[in-house]
Amino acid sequence: MMTVEEAVTGRRSIRAFLPKPVPRELIERILTTAGRAPSGTNVQPWRVWVLEGAMRDEICHDITSRYNRGDTGKREYDYYPVKWREPYLGRRRACGWGLYGTLGIGREDKGKMHVQHARNYAFFDAPVGLIFSMDRDLERGSWLDYGMFLQSIMVAARQFGLETCPQAAWMSFWEVLQRRIGIPPEQTVVCGMALGYPDPDEKVNTFTPDRMPLSEFVTFVPRLDP
């Protein structure tokens, strides 16, 4: 059994999965565990749509086909900054080029970049795809709550040898998802997530972006000793 520290620090976004099915009882156990995540006044704003089997395959094929025809969809909300600036721009570039570099994709290989991005819409071949939604009229506090719920899923999955990849890409086709899986119009698609057993032989799964040292994001306020 891994420690909490190991579960958190060893987590990475997995982009290649084995076709091995994930038992329903494990999915339910992970989501039940994550459902213990905190939320302001216990609002619990999350709603999860679990895609498996033929329905998962149909939706993946539909959206991948749209993307390959040049349809990039339209996001309902801005996940990333509308205008990038440092230090965030540098971190974004380091992450993107680090991933492509791991795969041997050069900066001019637009076709290969397209193919790699399209893998989002196959959940990177994970047998389970999770789509998350929440009521549109909830405020920023519920979005913060949602982040804790998503992190809980990603950490809880590792106990069972499962890994994940949270995916903003699915937001671009929120209208397709609403129509195909029945997400009510009063809810917004938050993001997607791939869930499955990682493929240990795929090089893409070795990529882990750098993290800031503590000194860059923590300030110990001087103590006022009595």
Structure description:
The protein is α+β, with helices and mostly antiparallel strands. It has one domain: NADH Oxidase, CATH 3.40.109. Helix 2 packs across helix 6. The model has no long low-confidence stretch (mean pLDDT 97).
Attribute tags:
8 helices, NADH Oxidase, 4 strands, four-stranded antiparallel β-sheet, 39% helix, alpha+beta, globular, 226 residues
Low-pLDDT residue intervals, each spanning 5 or more residues: none
Domain tally:
1
Q: Strand arrangement, largest sheet?
A: 1-2-4-3
Q: Would you tell me which CATH topology applies? A: NADH Oxidase
Name given to the CATH homologous superfamily = NADH Oxidase
Assembly annotation:
single chain
Q: Radius of gyration, rounded?
A: 19 Å
Relative strand content: 5-15%
> Termini separation (Å)?
44 Å
Work out the helix count.
Answer: 8
Order of helices and strands: HHEHHHEHEHEH
Net shape: globular
**CATH architecture heading:** 3-Layer(aba) Sandwich
The overall average pLDDT, rounded, is: 97
Residues in helix, % = 25-40%
- Please give the number of β-strands: 4
